[in-house]
Write a structure and sequence with these properties.
The complex is a heterodimer of chains A (about 400) and B (about 240). Chain A is an alpha+beta fold and about 400 residues long. Chain A has helices at about 1-10, 15-55, 75-85, 115-125, 150-155, 190, 200-205, 225-235, 250, 255-290, 295-300, 305-340, 350-355, 370-395, 400, and strands spanning about 55-60, 90-100, 105-115, 130-135, 145, 160-165, 175-185, 195-200, 215-220, 245, 345, 360. In chain A, the strands form two sheets. In chain A, strands 2-3-8-5-7-6 form a six-stranded mixed barrel. Chain A has a two-stranded antiparallel sheet with strand order 11-12. The longest helix of chain A has about 40 residues, at about 15-55. Chain B has about 240 residues and is of the alpha/beta class. Chain B contains seven helices and eleven strands. In chain B, the strands form two sheets. Chain B has a six-stranded mixed beta sheet, sandwiched between helices. Chain B has a five-stranded antiparallel beta sheet with strand order 5-4-1-2-11. In chain B, strand 1 and strand 2 form a beta hairpin. In chain B, helix 5 (about 150-160) packs parallel to helix 6 (about 180-195). The longest helix of chain B has 18 residues, at about 180-195. The chains are: A alpha+beta (about 400), B alpha/beta (about 240). The interface of A and B includes residues 11 and 294 of A.
């Protein structure tokens, strides 16, 4: 039956080729658009994680929503051992509190972040966002990196003194004068305004928090995020103290929700394209069917059952669809592969905000789930397209069909 | 001892034409023995094609009964009638009606394929029947690479390949020139005599009528006479 169906597809080669090409073009476009979409989304999610947030953060229970200097990671040394035992080699610990930064004439409230420069450099890319000056160095003491908006508000330039005031472990005022060694320009308002990064050791000394950390930041491969998080939660649950192990999207859910929303729009677009594909295939199959009414009548007269006849029409539709899917997948994946390497330069269309999340050159990539969803949906559309013609064929009366003009 | 293949009684079939009800068959009684070679003759509209469609299980009468090879055809479902046609009947149509995308061999083997016969076996049988109808060497040709006469011979081979009880042919010579038509009828007669297959042919072609062993004349949906050399094999209630 399949061989007969294939010959029927080839019966009007030009028409079938046009239909197959239309399916292929539709599918290739969808694959490329998914490639662009996934490339942008994955880049955004990676940038958020890699620049400063990390894939996972471990805190004392409740720290993320109610951060306090004294709410540090309990028994941090054993937590770090658990991290190492889990095979994670990209991690950094930080101390975090609120502070007031004073410039020449003004002051501004900000988040004070104490980091280990070398460890931070192995875990995040915040050092690469320094636009003026340099990032912190190992064993450095009273040095400070500010966001560019904060530096401008405080009227500070590189080499100027920055006075930081905060509370120490005992609630007393702690104040230190540091030198501004670098200014970050990231495009993300939360970093460019309201963040000061200083050496962890210096901050611990300043606040009386020696050997204590507010957060441990982990960088994980995407495909290990869920399993590793579950593993860490399980290991930490066995300890006496309470911890929170938060994935990046637990902390910043809007990003994930936005990606999911945009994907939903793509699925709507996909369904519109599917309707067009299904209509194209149905048109071809119906035309082919009308041309062969007598033949169907003869086949029925000879004893071919209605189910077999309908099955042949479905097979013809499927063959058109599968041929289009093969062609479209090759073209679509070739496009995705090409632009994965070459990239699409959108630097002219982006403002600085976008640049924090989206790189000026978009490299396409496609999630397997989206690829399969799309291919299966097109295959489904070819099946749907066959429903009406196959019902019509199955309902034919042999005498009428044989005498069809 | 008689061996009845077809036993039809009181077959009527009405078609509606606007508000008019036209009787295509008006109470036909017909009995045909195995091995008969019957021509249903009559002018257009006489009911011969309608009767042929009834005998082939392609159409249902409004009233009457029909037994073929001991089976009550009219109580069968659509699927059962298709299966019945597949295993008991062969068809030859006016316009050859071969499947265009199949070769002559594949056309002949098509019914055998529907019956579930293995490819090697069915192709061997198809080749045998191609030779039987004088088309050895044409097995791989497509219908559009053959003349009308050759296509109709393929159709005859297809009708006979499954060794049916009954071959029904509707105006088989209508699209053939007289010489080719006569040749085809000679072939069908020969196969009837050699194989013992029952043929019922509807035609108003004088050459076909002349070839009949039994001639059933029809008019206005009724059998008006049964004549020929073999009237014992065919009994029809005639009207005068």
């Amino acid at each position: 039956m399949l061989a007969l169906a294939w010959r029927n597809v080839l019966r009007n080669g030009r028409r079938s080729l046009i239909t197959i090409s239309a399916v292929a073009l539709g599918l290739a476009s969808l694959i490329f658009l998914w490639g662009f979409n996934d490339g942008v989304h994955n880049t955004m999610m990676r940038n958020l994680q890699q620049v400063i947030v990390g894939s996972v953060q471990i805190h004392a229970e409740g720290f993320f929503h109610h951060p306090k200097l004294v709410k540090t990671v309990p028994d941090a040394a054993s937590v770090i051992n658990i991290i190492k035992d889990s095979g994670i080699d990209q991690y950094a610990y930080r101390l975090r509190t609120f502070a007031l930064a004073a410039g020449r004439e003004t002051s501004e409230g900000l988040i004070l972040l104490g980091i280990e420069p070398e460890m931070e450099g192995q875990t995040t890319r915040i050092d690469q966002k320094v636009d003026q000056g340099r990032f912190l160095q190992n064993n450095e003491e009273a040095a400070c990196v500010l966001g560019e908006t904060t530096a401008r508000n405080l009227n500070l330039t590189l080499g100027d003194d920055v006075v930081l005031l905060t509370e120490d472990l005992y609630g007393s005022l702690a104040a230190e004068k540091l030198t501004l060694v670098g200014i970050i320009s990231s495009g993300e308002m939360g970093i460019d305004r309201g963040l000061a990064i200083i050496p962890l050791g210096f901050m611990q000394q300043m606040t009386g928090m020696q050997g204590r950390y507010s957060e441990i930041v982990l960088q994980l491969p995407t495909d290990q995020l869920e399993s590793t998080t579950a593993q860490l939660k399980q290991a930490l649950a066995a300890k006496r103290a309470s911890y929170e192990v938060l994935r990046w999207y637990d902390m910043y859910p809007m990003m994930k929700q936005w990606v999911e929303l945009e994907n939903a729009f793509y699925y709507i677009f996909l369904s519109i394209v599917l309707v067009i594909i299904a209509a194209g295939i149905m048109n071809t199959v119906l035309m082919s069917m009308l041309e062969r009414m007598r033949e169907f009548g003869v086949m029925m007269a000879l004893g071919c059952g209605r189910v077999k006849m309908a099955g042949m029409v479905v097979a013809e539709s499927l063959l058109l669809g599968v041929a289009g899917i093969l062609m479209g997948s090759i073209i679509g994946l070739a496009l995705v592969y090409y632009f994965q390497t070459a990239g699409i330069d959108l630097s002219g269309q982006m403002d600085s905000m976008a640049r924090f999340y989206i790189n000026p050159v978009i490299h396409t990539e496609i999630d397997g789930e989206h690829l399969w969803d799309t291919i299966l949906a097109v295959l489904g559309a070819t099946l749907v397209a066959a429903i009406w013609p196959s019902i019509r064929v199955a309902r034919l009366e042999p005498v009428e069909a044989i005498h069809h003009v | 001892m008689s061996d009845t293949l077809i036993s039809a009684s009181g077959l009527t079939r009405y078609y509606e034409s606007g508000e008019m009800k036209v009787a295509a068959l008006a109470g036909v009684d017909l009995t045909i023995e195995r091995g008969a070679y019957v021509v249903l003759a009559g002018r257009s509209g006489s009911g011969k094609t309608t009767l042929l469609n009834m005998l082939g299980g392609l159409d249902r009468p409004d009233t009457g009964s029909l037994m073929i090879a001991g089976d009550d055809v009219l109580v069968k479902s659509t699927a059962e009638r298709a299966a019945f046609r597949l295993h008991h009947l062969g068809f030859v149509f006016q316009s050859y009606n071969l499947i265009r995308v199949l070769s002559a061999r594949e056309n002949v083997a098509y019914v055998l394929q529907l019956q579930g016969m293995e490819k090697k076996e069915r192709f061997a049988l198809a080749d045998h029947w191609m030779a039987e109808v004088g088309l050895q060497g044409f097995e791989n040709r497509r219908p559009d690479q053959m003349s009308g006469g050759q296509q109709q011979r393929v159709a005859v081979a297809r009708a006979l390949a499954s060794n049916p009880d009954l071959v029904l042919a509707d105006e088989p010579t209508a699209n053939l020139d007289s010489h080719t038509g006569e040749s085809l009828m000679a072939l069908m007669r020969r196969l009837n005599e050699q194989q013992g297959t029952t043929f019922v042919i509807a035609s108003h072609d004088p050459a076909v009528i002349a070839s009949a062993r039994t001639l059933v004349n029809m008019q206005d949906g009724q059998i008006v006479s049964v004549e020929g050399k073999d009237t014992e094999a065919v009994k029809g209630d005639t009207v005068s």
